[in-house]
């Protein structure tokens, strides 16, 4: 008999068409291969028998005991009755309780025999109970075989159809016990040896039926490594293919740059900024297309870095573009960079959804002729009509809102040679996540804020502190500063939140008489939003009352206080982003997290992390641990990772090892043609064709 992992589950002995349909519907398990990688999420240790007097410390854990029935008693009448059995070994006793199927159990249990009882002890007063335990005649030989009992993640619906962990292990056991069963190996042999990993066949056996703890751990480690290694191989292969296929534009003329550095640079760059610029220059001069991710905390000065890089492209007769996720942000970049551009005699324009038709036409024409050096904009840049004469560098700000597909559309904006791409993000992605998600990008990090910045002071306060907060904000306003008040806006209750925001606005107007207030939220027309933002930017209004629309990128250095209402309702990354709107000038800045008294444990962890640290990377790590990677990545990218076993929050070490190994392997054999890599090649190719598994015999 041969096994194929492609074998549909309905043909596996013991499953049949009906159960197969349920497994397909509830867990998307279609083939033997799918079932095999539906790993157990824990094991019950059935190799061990406890003495009853040991159970006191084991409440809530499944355990086995051996003993005899001492007393059996039916309590109560009719449907409410229950069966209580006093069960004892030499060390003590435990009460077994049944609420259902009582008569059957009553008739079949016998005194004077040894039983093996499997259940979860729970304490009621001084008495230990087990509700609905499993009870079998005791047979010491059988016990040895039981070992670890796999528990699978299953749905309630499946359990109702009697598809439980027992059922799955009954199906898998004979297959995995068959010595002819082989899983095709996908990790090259030298790698297995180097890290002392079990083969795929050994590991799949051990993951379902580990003979002991050591094997269980080895199998888990192997699959974690496998998953992380495979994602790295895929990403690195894409990268190496791109490097070999798409030559990049080579920019070497530094005259424009030198002029900027000598005459117009408004401040000294930080060491981190200089280092990052060097890394980017090296790419842009290399003759290979750059795809680089620039990470830098809010306020670390990414904009000027990107501008300086654009100058290298423009100095070599190419054009540059900067794309931002929102109109406000694009506009702000435009205003921020126009001054520099003018000083340098460069032509710069802004293109967004609300650019007027005539203007738009003009921009399109100037782009095509090459007269326009620098274009700032939103998604509008991606439109087909937007054609550059020679796009050399495209900068994308705030990456997390752009998907991989959009990045690819930018490459096509230059038909002869793809532009260099610089992706900037202020959402520090933990290194582990960055490596897995953007393994095809090179990574530059600005890990330093410009000198003279005072770290933002963050405080957690409650509703009862409101008067205190208001008088504090007033003091700041009197000193000439500006303030933000931010309200949550979640989609499900948008109208309700809007009411909150508006009521908040009215009460703030009352509390801050004599000051001017702006209000901005997502329901405003873009031009009104823009108008209010600009009033605040220019200092015409003192307080900005807003929803999270101000989250990304907006720069008002004079703003020194941010009050976040209902802070417990925001995510950690979001709070950090919001807080980054202050602390951008030379003055001491403050962030006040206002919450209700009752907040969840997770909410408390978030607030504490923020109060303790301004370090975006630290906060991103806490966030990763709280939320898990799926959430952090957002929907666009989550499909990229098929991680069942590996956990990016926990397995950073394994990821690092797997990545280093993958880098070495791809460098030595980019097309995977060496014989020892043939299994890997087959696996990767099968994945790319959408097929999940190849045939095994
Ligand atoms: P972000 O990285 O969040 O996009 P910005 O580029 O908006 O940060 O920079 C924040 C502020 O810091 C801006 O006002 C910018 O002019 C200023 N800035 C950037 N680099 C420096 C520096 N080296 N020294 C002083 N100020 C700087
Ligand atoms: Mg920015």
Describe this structure in words.
- This protein is an alpha/beta fold.
- The protein has five domains: 9-43 and 157-181; 48-146, Beta Barrel (OB fold (Dihydrolipoamide Acetyltransferase, E2P)); 223-246 and 648-695, no CATH class; 255-446, P-loop containing nucleotide triphosphate hydrolases (Rossmann fold, 3-Layer(aba) Sandwich), CATH 3.40.50; 457-613, Rossmann fold, CATH 3.40.50.300.
- It is built from 25 helices and 22 strands.
- The strands form four sheets. A seven-stranded mixed β-sheet has the order 6-7-4-3-2-5-8, with no helix packed on it. Strands 12-13-11-14-15-10-16 form a seven-stranded parallel β-sheet, with helices on both faces.
- It is globular and about 100 Å long.
- It starts with 15 loop residues before the first helix and ends in a 9-residue tail after the last helix.
- The structure holds adenosine-5'-diphosphate (ADP) and magnesium ion.
- The site of magnesium ion has 5 residues, from helix 12.
